[in-house]
Design brief:
104 residues, alpha+beta, three-stranded antiparallel β-sheet, 30% helix
């Protein structure tokens, strides 16, 4: 299923982030892979399941055409500060930083 595929991909990304690699790790996929990954990470969640009864359709965060347009992309950037042993992961969707409580 799509959910299982996203879990495998996320586990692979986490392994790459936990490694000591200093070279970029690039993965390429279609929107059908990217969108479930973003959903698994809890990004662009509006606080309620989207249905026809949603009150505020116009201002919702989840807009498929904006989140995964043609050539949409997701980047996980591992950063570290001198003297700090805790790496920081920056998440970018379509070259824009995305902050989410689910990623902290």
């Amino acid at each position: 299923t799509t959910y299982k595929m996203s879990c495998l991909l996320l586990n692979d990304i986490i392994k790459d982030m936990e490694s000591d690699k200093t070279t970029p790790v690039l993965k390429f996929a279609h929107e059908e892979t990217v969108m479930p990954l973003l959903t698994l990470l809890g990004l662009f969640y509006d606080g309620e399941i989207m249905t026809h009864k949603m009150k505020d359709w116009k201002n919702r965060k989840m807009r498929v055409a904006r989140v995964t347009p043609f050539a949409g992309n997701v980047a996980f950037v591992k950063q570290s500060c001198p003297g700090d042993n805790i790496p920081r992961i920056q998440v970018l969707v379509n070259e824009k930083e995305v902050k989410s409580s689910s990623l902290q």
